[in-house]
Design a protein that fits this description.
With 122 residues, this protein is mainly alpha-helical. It is 59% helix and 3% strand. It folds into 2 domains: 7-69, Arc Repressor Mutant, subunit A; 79-121, no CATH class. The protein has a two-stranded antiparallel ribbon.
């Protein structure tokens, strides 16, 4: 990884890291703007893009709240870990009415199938 070029990039990186640690999910661009007093989300996005280029963050542009600290990803090891991770992030709360959760492995399989269908449709 390259060194952080600016003081503000380091502050943004630390904010994202702490926010994710406290909440279990990363902040939105608007939350970053509110924290630093940026006048537009473009300002926050430019700092994030620099951190992505330097290898400190990863992001899936198709998903909201998809910022990840590189090297900080905890991969679920089984269906139950996946369900616990999703429950902690609030994802299950959003989807529980759309998917029959059933047992954790069945739920994990349904989530993967839905994600694959969405990718094919893009």
């Amino acid at each position: 990884m390259a060194t952080l070029a600016t003081k503000k990039q380091k502050q943004v990186y630390e904010f994202i890291k702490e926010f994710q640690k406290e909440n279990g999910y990363p902040p939105t661009l608007q939350e970053i703007c509110n924290n630093f007093g940026f006048s537009s989300t473009k300002s926050a996005d430019s700092h994030i893009q620099a951190l992505i280029r330097k290898g400190y963050l990863q992001r899936n542009k198709r998903l909201s709240r998809s910022l990840n600290i590189v090297g900080n990803e905890k991969k679920p090891t089984n269906g139950r870990d996946l369900v616990n991770t999703l429950r902690k992030s609030g994802f299950i709360g959003m989807w529980k009415n759309r998917v029959d959760i059933g047992d954790s492995s069945k739920f994990a399989r349904k989530l993967r199938e839905q994600a694959q269908k969405r990718e094919r449709n893009l």
